[in-house]
Amino acid sequence: MNEQNRKTLLSIISTLILICTLISGSYAFYVIAVSEKVDIATEVKIPACASADLGSATQISLTGDTAAPISDLKALSSTTYRYAFKVTNNCNVTSKLVISLAPSTSSTLPANALKYAIVEQGGSLPTAGSYLNSGNSEKLLTSQIVSEVKANTNITVKYGYELLNTTISAGTSKNYYLYLWVDYYEGDRTQTGANNNITLNKTFSGQLIVSDYSEWDGGDLLGDTVVAYASSSDYTSSQDSSLYRVINQNGYRYEGKDPDNYVMFNNELWRIIGAFDGSSIGLTSGKYYTKLMRVSSTDATTSTVYSVDFANSNLKNYLNGTYLNSINSASQSMIATAKWYLGAASSSYGSYTAADFYNTERSSTPGYGVSTLTMNAKVSVMYISDYGYAAYGPTCNNTSVYVHNYNLECYKHNWMYKYTYQYSMVPYAPSAYIMRVQNTGNLFPEQWPTDPTSRSWRPVVYLNNDVKIIGGKGTQANPYVISQ
Hints:
By secondary structure, the protein is mostly beta strands. The chain has two domains: 3-218, no CATH class; 225-469, no CATH class. The chain contains eight helices and 32 strands. β17 and β18 form a beta hairpin. α3 runs parallel beside α4. The radius of gyration is 26 Å and the shape is elongated.
């Protein structure tokens, strides 16, 4: 394709219009529609008081020959790796301007192997590029940005790498070039040689974003972030490359073998079950409360003996007394007092799916000897439906039957599985039994054993809707850091 024909492929403006607040400054977020490796500027207007037509966007990508390692000198001297764009401030106040690059979740090129340079047109080119993930350039995108990028470009992003942080005066425009390429040394900053092959057969796709970052500095709501990640797309776990997803199934849930749903809470590692509208747990409708489960389990003892009447059990009292008081004050303040449901599994539980358990937990069917169908508490244990919904994989999903004829492959794709007996809060209707997850991964009703130390429980809490992410990536090595 010749240069003239390539120029005709220029994408028209793609602007995401949010709110422009002109009190002490202005807020704006825009996805940049850039031309694909052609030397023509694509206009983007900022901030939101400027109107623009919504057009189709071509995302930035490195594939094939352009995804091969190349020296800084060659990349910066070629238009092949260059994208041009224009930013215009049509408001009557100076705006903060932050330009960042957000890789899609489907990108496979490691960020530490990518280099970039961003320069104002007419300015001097640098002699070398900067690593994409240098310093504190990586920022967790707000749920609003994630949602808007998905709506506008149909790609899913989680993080943005800050390329430029500056200001733009009222009524002015700035024209930029962005260069992006694969480092000749493939991220080996000792520069001993380009021979580690970590970029072999890898590709990159992403989206340029313009924002004033006014929300990023204060963190994003944890529940809203979970909701923003919900889609039909699969994510790749940073732990072992297994697939997982966040999907709305009676709450926005993490499902799969080992999702990136880790949170540091009470100086311990916890994991996100999902985000739930307040109306489903007796709290504020339209607000999302994040449900956490502690990673480590605790052996049951005679002092934490379970009862089918969970609302009046020793375990419930222990969790909301001695255990709750052991949590540090900052973490305690984040926990919501929520409604928990105590409906029982019926005699036909052998054909239940996760959705069936969810419905019976909230039904009017009481368990044997159970005094109430709901309770208000800060701490509890998992539902059986929570366990069922957490399964997702190539040979299993949560529409499978979970009890006697349980698909034994499911536990291999369920992040809640632990090689131990785990108690739920779900009673069994016909007898004085409770539902447990066995060490084989399937479910079974059980009367409280004579020796409870062979069983365990894990605390579960709902966090308040105003809890924010202030750091971390949600991985096991770098869990979300939260604050209120």
